[in-house]
What does this fold into?
Amino acid sequence: MSEQHNSVDAIIIGAGFSGLYQLHTLRDQLNLSTMVLEAGTDLGGTWFWNRYPGARCDSESYSYCYMFSEEIYKEWSWSERYPGPQEIRNYLDFVAQKLELRSHIKFNTLVTSAHFIEETNQWELTTKNGEIYRATYLITGIGCISSANIPNIPGLKNFKGEWYHTGNWPHEQVSFENKRIGQIGTGSTGIQAAPVIAETAGHLHVFQRTPNYSVPARNAPLTDDWKEHVHKNFKEIKQVVQSTPNGFPYRISTTKVFEQSENERQTAYEKAWQKGGLQFRATYQDITTNKKANDTAAEFLKNKIRTVVRDKETAESLATIDYPYAGKRPPIDTNYFETFNKDNVSLINLKKESIVKITENGIQTTERHIPLDMIIFATGFDAITGKFFEMDIQGRNGISLKETWKEGPKTYLGLQTPGFPNLFTITGPGSPSVLCNMPVAIEQHVEWITHCIEHMRNNKIDTCEASQEAADKWVEHVNEAANATLLVTVPHSWYLGANVVGKPRIFMPYAGGMDRYRALCEDAVKNHYAGFIMNSKNSTNHSKNNLTNHNFDAAKKITTPGI
Ligand code: NAP
It folds into this structure.
């Protein structure tokens, strides 16, 4: 422990959507000395790192923003239906300027460890630059898909060409001009990147292990009428995003698939396809819960692939999908399947030939050697827990978070972990997080954490931590919620941690719906922070409350999951 340290009330890790809003509430509403430590050299979080070609948000811009301030909402106008990384960074910069946040953010500051000190009830953080900070409250705003997953394919170190992971894309322009490019991965990222890379690449080889459904995004510039419309209807839009199960600005249909005739279904799917975007999955209530119902949507989408892609073999490789639509996060695209009609694009079906190794100048499969100038890893993330494990986080008695979560993350409401007092995790594991429109989930967490800290200060409470009982029950309920959906039936999903070798297979986000989740968080507060242990120096009383008042039964029946 060093004597040289900076001491503040609260430290937030990460300067994305979470960190900025949390800084504002703690500093400006609670008057706490607060600072943000950020590894990047500027604002943006996910959108600072994800600058790959074609990157674009899949939430519609008018809902992918803060709604805590009507003034801020109305002062900003988005230019396109789905914003790209630069526009999102511009937006966050606008908010940071408006709220004068930058002076309390330290960039280029990677937190390497955070240890809880029992004697002072403080967190001590060290950074890669060798600085030491202490704070009473530690809040993580580190994102859910921020730890790049580069597969361990033999030979990468020998490759003489360029290679990149989409989640750590260079800030400088990367040229594909006349180059032979190998893109590994066809998730949301790969599906966005391939069409843009193909525009200038000499040849693009897309290495596909698991084919994917995709619905056209139908991105377009927004008209002045639309911009005026969303500003005028701020209150209604906010009401919708805060009451739907997934935080998106549309309602999920209450009609079930087999309540309609085949003709009616085809018409409904076609209409949703033409409209584009994630709301395709909202066409019927039971698409994400009933396999037979899902099959009708899946078949519609597979037929679209077969119609678009001219080469029969390629079309079959793309359309032979053996898991339910939206069982994994469904991508939305701009001309993804059309890209395979270009002469300079080939699909390498890794179900028919697999990658053996990377050579000095290409990729060797079981069938052939494919010469390449560049390899792009669109291979996803060590999601939700990966970023936590990049730091050495130790709670009471020096117990590490990695050890505590070794069989899967155990939190209460995704907000706190037993044994880690005053550590709050914005969109942490066990919260709706990635199953929700992110800014909606983030605002709810930030506001809950702010009220909790305010409650602690008003009542001279030194530490707050989730009880073991609450965490155990919550993990059980998170599983129960996931099991009510088709999400658990996809064995290779990153929601389950299945994309990372050695990661425990546990469904990490809460699938019970953001609306239900919001009510459970409010319920915990109403019940005197049921499930959280509040301690004061002068009294070792656990809060009077415990989970006996706190009833998850109301949450048991999941009819419309939050996905
Ligand atoms: P991802 O969904 O995990 O996809 C990774 C891809 O890489 C998969 O096709 C995977 O195949 C493949 N892959 C991984 N390791 C491989 C290996 N060793 N050999 C061959 N293929 C391999 O990652 P992502 O596309 O980056 O998307 C992650 C999440 O980020 C999304 O689900 C979404 O939530 C978010 N995202 C959002 C947007 C947006 O807002 N528009 C855009 C991009 C991403 P398998 O399926 O076989 O594992």
Observations:
- The chain is about 30% helix and 15% strand.
- The longest strand covers residues 132-140.
